[in-house]
Write a structure and sequence with these properties.
Layout: H1 4-25, H2 27-39, H3 43-53, H4 57-60, H5 62-74, H6 76-85, H7 87-106, H8 113-143, E1 147-149, E2 155-157, H9 167-191, H10 194-225, E3 227-234, E4 246-252, H11 257-261, H12 267-284, H13 288-310, E5 313-315, E6 325-326, H14 334-361, H15 368-373
Antiparallel strand pairs: 1-2, 3-4, 5-6
Helix pairs in contact: 1-5, 1-13, 1-14, 2-3, 2-8, 2-9, 5-6, 7-8, 8-9, 9-10, 9-13, 10-12, 12-13
């Protein structure tokens, strides 16, 4: 039904939607984990925070797994190259994520204050480190990764894990962390009440303001201080998947090419500020649901802005620019993309439907009284 070029573009859109969905759905989980030691002033308050996401956090992580599976199926060359090059960084993410399931399940097994405090900080690590490292990884895409291919398409790398941490990539990491903390604060304002909700609202205003400040700084550096990538020949949308059949040059301001060619795309970064304003006005008007919707919009817009700027590049190479992997030349076969597309069209609405049903059934405030009443059955 669709030609090869259209399927390539559709799968780029699907992967971006999945990554934005991960930022929205699991972002507030991680944000709450990172806020846990600071908003929860005692054990009961921290249990309120944990149980505000207790029914959903495992399901929300499916977005991350699904996005990884989509990259593997749609862009196998990207998956193989990125996971090989970022192997240690990926292990750091996984090791920090290990604190979440163990912390949720074992924190309240013992009443020992030292035990619970240890797991509180474990959940802080599991909530704060992954978004920081995800942001660092995203920032590296703009600077380019030092890799290349030989004639047999074997990849090689000329960097170590410390090379991934530069002033710009750390800025991108902090931006990602601020985004999740803002989103987590908005969700807590929706799911809690009283003093906890007030602290959560203050956190949302603080980190939303920091996000609004740092977002244009990162954008300016990416577009004016970092040389972007531009395809000057080859790499046709309907062409075969051969990353070596194109010529790529680096040029100042190249990361703004898509916005210059299609000015209407500027609405996407503008949605970041629209989402922040919606969240601020809603929280000030004691309408926390609007605050959560606003922060979700801001998170999705941040991810989409970066993706649009990079397009059609997925994994640029700093040492061999013409070996960079793009939407057009790092994909699976047409048949694979076609079959997966229809599977996604059928299954995605089902996933969204049962996710929405779960949130509807388990909606409402998590209170201190509720946690005390259900002391032995909650996290």
């Amino acid at each position: 039904m669709f030609d090869y070029a259209t399927l390539k573009l559709l799968w780029w859109i699907i992967v971006v939607v999945l990554l934005a969905g991960f930022a929205v759905m699991d972002g507030f989980d991680m944000g709450i984990g990172a806020l846990l030691p600071f908003i929860g002033k005692n054990d009961t308050e921290r249990r309120v925070l944990i149980n505000s996401i207790g029914a959903h956090w495992e399901g929300n992580q499916v977005w991350f797994i699904t996005a990884g599976g989509a990259v593997f199926a749609a862009w196998p060359m990207v998956y193989a190259t990125a996971f090989s090059g970022f192997y240690i960084a990926m292990l750091l993410v996984l090791w920090s994520l290990f604190f979440r399931p163990v912390g949720f399940d074992f924190r309240s097994k013992l009443e020992n204050p030292g035990w619970r405090k240890f797991w509180d900080w474990g959940l802080f690590v599991g909530g704060g480190v992954p978004p920081l490292l995800f942001g660092v990884a995203f920032g590296n895409l703009f600077e380019g990764v030092a890799f290349g291919f030989d004639k047999e398409m074997h990849s090689s790398f000329s960097f170590n894990v410390l090379d991934l941490f530069t002033p710009f990539t750390l800025t991108a990491g902090v931006l990602s962390l601020f985004m999740t903390l803002f989103h987590g604060g908005c969700y807590l304002a929706l799911r809690t009440e009283g003093t906890i909700a007030k602290r959560s609202t203050r956190a949302a205003f603080l980190f939303g303001s920091l996000l609004a400040t740092l977002f244009p700084v990162a954008g300016y550096v990416a577009s004016h201080r970092i040389w972007g990538y531009r395809i000057v020949s080859g790499d046709l949308p309907n062409g075969i998947a051969n990353p070596l059949a194109k010529t790529v040059v680096r040029a100042p301001g190249a990361w703004l090419d898509n916005f210059a060619a299609h000015p209407g795309l500027w609405i996407v970064p503008a949605l970041v500020y629209l989402g922040i304003l919606i969240a601020f006005f809603s929280l000030r008007a004691s309408r926390p649901l609007g605050g959560f919707v606003g922060s979700a919009l801001a998170c999705a817009a941040v991810i989409s802005t970066g993706a649009i700027s990079l397009f059609p590049f997925i994994l640029p190479s700093s040492t061999h620019p013409s070996h960079s992997l793009t939407v057009w030349d790092a994909v699976s076969s047409r048949l694979t993309l076609d079959i997966m597309f229809w599977a996604a069209i059928i299954l995605t609405p089902i996933v969204l439907a049962y996710t929405g049903w779960c949130y509807r059934v388990m909606r409402g405030k998590v209170t201190i009284a509720f946690v005390r009443e259900q002391d032995h059955s909650l996290y």
